[in-house]
Amino acid sequence: MNTRSNMQDYQYQFLKFVIQHQILEFGEFKLKSGRISPYFFNAGLFNSGQKLSFLADSYAQAIIASNATFDVLFGPAYKGIPLVAATAIALSKNHDLDKPYCFNRKEAKEHGEKGLIVGSSLEGRVLILDDVITAGTAIREVAAVIKNNNATISGITVALDRQEKGLGDLSAVQEIEYALNISVVSIINLENIVNYLNASEDERLKKHSDSVRKYRDTYGV
């Protein structure tokens, strides 16, 4: 089946993997916004060594494909902590790109090394890694942390861009891009999911094609 059109191989492999492991599911799911979504992406299910390794490899490939320029990788607490560490390993091992990484604590530590930042120094151009951007609140909080350390955000890489309108005509990702004057890169987006389902020869997947496409037509940007 020609599901690879308009997709790079790592994107196709990522979609295949997340569907196979039911990280990306189809059905009816109520979102925080109250919308009923025909699909749901649960990044918390990258919960084994093999799954996390695959996820990190996918992030690394997306970063390389985007030609991102950065000095340090940053993972927002808490989900971003294993993600940023694993991705730093993948970049070094698979792409000969050895970059420092760091992450933040929710509360400052008063003993030992103290402070909110763990790992490398938070300085220079910072590439943030996150799973998804839902409302953008967490990213704005992270942006303040980075600014307070006299560093700058060079970009953000996420697993999935839902390409879905927020309260206005822009998606959460677009709002962040405008607010911070940066680009957000995703491993996959809603358009990739639609294309994958449309071209699938698996009837169990094919039956969800219409509902996902209609959702995109209603709420997509």
Explain this structure to me?
This protein is an alpha/beta fold and 221 residues long. The protein has one domain: Rossmann fold (3-Layer(aba) Sandwich), CATH 3.40.50. It has helices at 9-20, 49-65, 80-95, 137-148, 172-180, 190-199, 203-206, 209-219; strands at residues 24-30, 36-41, 72-75, 101-109, 115-119, 125-129, 152-161, 184-189. A 6-stranded mixed sheet has the order 5-4-3-6-7-8, with helices on both faces. The protein has a two-stranded antiparallel ribbon with strand order 1-2. α5 links the parallel β7 (152-161) and β8 (184-189). α2 packs across α3 (80-95) and α6 runs antiparallel to α8. The two termini are 27 Å apart.
Question: What labels would you give this structure?
Answer:
single chain; 221 residues; alpha/beta; Rossmann fold; 41% helix; globular
Q: Topology, pairings included?
A:
Layout: H1 9-20, E1 24-30, E2 36-41, H2 49-65, E3 72-75, H3 80-95, E4 101-109, E5 115-119, E6 125-129, H4 137-148, E7 152-161, H5 172-180, E8 184-189, H6 190-199, H7 203-206, H8 209-219
Parallel strand pairs: 3-4, 3-6, 6-7, 7-8
Antiparallel strand pairs: 1-2, 4-5
